[in-house]
Specification:
Number of strands: 22
CATH class of the largest domain: Alpha Beta
Distance between the termini: 29 Å
CATH topology of the largest domain: Alpha-D-Glucose-1,6-Bisphosphate, Chain A, domain 3
Radius of gyration: 22 Å
Length: 436
Amino acid sequence: MSAFKAYDIRGIFGTEITEDLAYKLGRAFVQLLQCKEVVIGHDMRTSSKILATALIKGITEQGANVIMIGLTDTPLFYFACKNTPGIMITASHNPAEYNGFKLVNSEGMPLYEDNGMKTLQTLVEKNNFPKTEKKGEITKRSYVQDCLSFFLKQAKNIKPLRIIFDGGNGMGGLTHAVFYREIGCKVISLFPEPDGTFPHHEPNPMKEENRKHAREAVLLHHADLAILTDGDADRIMFLDEKGNYVHPDHLIALLAEYFLEKKPGASFVYDLRCSRIVPETIQQKKGKAYPCRVGNPFLKKMMKENNAIFGGEVSAHFLFKETNDHESPLLTALTVLKIMSEKNKKLSELILPFQKYAKIEEENFSVKDKEKVIKTLTEKYKQGNLSLEDGIKVDFEDWWFSVRASNTEPLLRLNMEAKNKTILEEKKKEVLRFFE
């Protein structure tokens, strides 16, 4: 089953993701976890309600009760799960024709690879489930107000900043614009209405073309910043007051520095694609920095193991201990607004000290043989400080690069950083020759 990925289930609706798969998944999930209750939420995609119906049928026929929270974003889904396992129906930032499932156990940990995902796939494929005497029941509940109240308690001394919010017709419109207004900010919303056809732009603000509307709005309205979320609103990105993109790893460094002012000696986890400025900043401020392989579940696992208070990825997932090591875009935005308010500085001024190195935004390449490319690069750059934990990463004194296969798409992803633009451009051309 090609829809089963390293740490979620995702594919094109109607072929890879079907009602039959959703039904079997519901039964398999209950059998695997031996749970009595399952939280179910879904995003705004046109296929999500269809899949929810089939999924719930499978869960209840296997004897478990369902807490149906309906239309929701992924962080709100995590908030609702607490100590209850759950399944979120979403394809995150993928185009409209996709859908999928994110799954968490009763401890709040995602199912991935050796943490249940392979066993779950086997159960679905076997399709041999024990009969149950009694079907489960369905209870509907909303957690929106509970979630907003949780974060509003932490929102103190925020200046009335002017914010552009671009929800991209994803699920961010459910909570973000409301939250920013509640804390006294002036909000100009772009595409806040959930619409699974994504009529204005693809729900992936990692791509530059999908940030165009927000950039124009920042300049037009003389806003202090722009905040953008992806399809299921588990990623958050920022543009400064000049409309410039704030690299997620620069933001990780900013937030880590701020947290270390409040909690000296704290621990942090970051993915191996991050700029060198991230561990340098944490170590300079006497914190503990732990690099991690790419992937949301792996960061969560490492955060728990090292009692880290914060974790971040280049893909713009920001995780917090106080939200059970789950990503929290609302808490990320709140922290950025706090820093701007407390230090009385523009976002561009706050980010400037972390722009020490020349860096490319992650670039994606479709190649015929991903393993061959990585093997060739490994041989070519074996004289560097080489890591094969997740694809290949090679560190040299004045530059580094990483190449890894996507866990969710048929692509190779390239990240690179150097001491200056000249070295960066030279080394990028050098490495890209091996992609041809």
